[in-house]
Design a protein that fits this description.
Elements lengths: L1 E3 L6 E3 L5 E5 L2 E5 L2 H9 L1 H4 L7
Antiparallel strand pairs: 1-2, 3-4
Length: 53
């Protein structure tokens, strides 16, 4: 399944994710730990209204 890192916008296969995070009932996938850390510090900055995860 192709996913998009909400921090940097990179698209990749979910199996290749370096990290994940749960937020508001959704799972978010990240290409690096750095992107996950940025997301966890301010998730509202990266969550889109359309619900793409």
């Amino acid at each position: 399944m192709e996913v998009r890192d909400p921090v940097c916008g990179m698209r990749f296969d979910a199996e290749q994710a370096a990290a994940t995070a749960e937020y508001r009932g959704g799972t978010y996938y990240f290409c690096t730990e750095h992107c996950r850390t940025a997301f966890e510090e301010d998730p509202e900055r990266y969550v889109e209204c359309e619900g793409e995860v």
